[in-house]
Amino acid sequence: MLNIQTKQEGTASVLSVKGKLNFEVTTQLRETIKEIIASEQPKLLVVNLEGTSFIDSSGLGLLVAARSSIDKINGRLHLCCLPGQVKKIFDQTNLTNFFSIFPTEQDALRGN
């Protein structure tokens, strides 16, 4: 089961994801992201992956699609707090060059 918490930080929306981000739960996160983009149209969407213990190709694909969706409303998607095993998968798939990845949530909110 995936635990998703959301909060607002000024004009930014922050999603904290805990659990395994795999095929079984991507629909839950996809719907949450779609809802946030449609209702809040954030200038910045931060996805905090600190509590994510695993991510597979469907989870990666979901994040790529989320970036595309946020780009369409001239927003930005920042990822933060990637655990070692998750960061390794981003490195192996070369997605560290596609996403803006930050060590902390505060850094992601500041964009530096």
What does this structure look like?
With 112 residues, the protein is of the alpha/beta class. The chain has a single domain, classed as Transcription Regulator spoIIAA, CATH 3.30.750.24. The protein has helices at 26-40, 57-72, 84-92, 105-110; strands at 3-9, 12-21, 44-55, 76-80, 100-102. Helix 1 packs parallel to helix 2 (57-72). The radius of gyration is 13 Å and the shape is globular.
Concise description?
By secondary structure, this protein is of the alpha/beta class.
CATH superfamily: STAS domain
Helical amount among residues, as a percent range? 40-55%
Low-pLDDT regions: none
Q: Got a strand count?
A: 5
Q: So how many helices?
A: 4
* CA-atom Rg in angstroms: 13 Å
Mean pLDDT: 96
Our estimate of the beta-strand percent is 25-35%
